[in-house]
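During the second year of the project, the team shifted from modelling isolated chains to modelling whole assemblies. The rationale, set out in the original proposal, was that interfaces cannot be judged from single-chain predictions alone. As a representative example for this report, we include one of the complexes processed in the last quarter. Its constituent sequences, exactly as entered into the pipeline, are reproduced here:
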Amino acid sequence: MELQNEITVSVRINGTQFTAAAAPEESLLEFLRTRAMVMDVKCGCNKGDCGTCTLILDGQPVKSCLVLVAQANSKEVWTVKGMALDPLMQALQESFATHGAIQCGFCTPGMLVTARSLLADCPQPDRAAIKEALSGNLCRCTGYKKIVDAVAAVAACQASARVQGGRCRVWKQQ
Amino acid sequence: MSSFAYAVPGTKDEALALLNELGSGARIVAGCTNVLPDIRAKKIAACTLVDISKLAELKGIDVRGDRVIIGSLTTINELLHSDLVASHGQVLWQVGRRFADPLTRNRATIGGNLANASPAGDGVVPLLALEAKVIVASLAAEREIPVAEFLTGPGRSALQPNELIVGVSFTKTTAMRSVFIKFGMRKSMAISLASIGLMVGLDGDRVEQVRIALGALAPTAIRARQTEDYLTGKPLAPEVVTRAQEIIRTEAKPISDVRASREYRVHLAGVLLKRALEAALA
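Output from the structure prediction step:
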């Protein structure tokens, strides 16, 4: 069996194939930020605690600092930027803005990716389920309440939008 | 040039041949939730990363006769979504929602949790309660090791450098009630200060059989055998529970570390036993 000191990795990032050489111990996060120059995936703790580097791999949200880039070879990766045209992501972004669910903004890409994944799988989560789903994403500004409010508002809006067949727009509850 | 090398075997036999050849120069990687932080912290130096994540033989959850067999590459999230685990190994299923956090659960594997052999490992506590066996393969043979013998010390296991954990198996246990309680500093992403996995067969409030596994309360996850022996055959009356708490506090042999003192952990052993018994009775 071949032992490789340098590997070639090809990843489909937000719909575009990207191929580059990488080190065997390189994480998907390092690869994205230093080789593919995908900067919307943030590097916070780099050891699996903070969740700012969350992206979608194999259809699931994962912390990309905990993924060996070699294991992402021939796979598809979606980051928050790649979901810019996705209606659910847009609804979440709008809701984060209207709820002020953002302070320094560093955790936001990861929060959005995790929240979108939750609402795609489970359109009607209660607050406890939202908190649990987001529990791997840390907000150092501790603005958790507004983040949960923002996600809950989209969940509620999705429910009524389905009934009315309209697009989900979120307005802050006064 | 990196001091690490990478190899991705396509079959179990290929992986075993490679481990045989490389010996302690190999490091098996799958979910990487422990390995990547350890590489970054320089706890793991130059080695060949043997990526087993493609091995189909190590995936899936199966029932054979009265045994449930879980492939070592099964993620914690897959355990959480398995009806087989929920009905036949409930205490393992109960751990799912307390293990790390939802994002990490999508990558972390049950085999990795065993190999890591942390005294605080949340995955190994229910496996001890289930009297599970670790299925370990080498080129020469396959052997089954009871979890209690597999765990030999903090971060140490009976796994040899030429061996690979292929799965874990336990006997279906539908008749007993199961409780898992993790005591951490947060609800999520916490390392257990102490944890308990309880399986108990009750006749009314009388204990017919009981298995108690403890995490982060000794150099490895342990069974509280003396407490089990004391409780067997007795009704769960308040004075019996109080005496059982005293016994379990003598069985716990924890250390002091950044998360908690030895004394606090000993105290927790009693508290968690009481809470677990109450939950089983409820």
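The interface with chain A takes residues 1-2, 4-9, 14, 17-18, 29, 31-33, 35-37, 39-41, 48-49, 51, 53, 77, 97, 100-104, 106-107, 187-189 of chain B (CB under 8 Å). Residues 177-281 of chain B form a domain with the Enolase-like; domain 1 fold (CATH 3.30.390.50).
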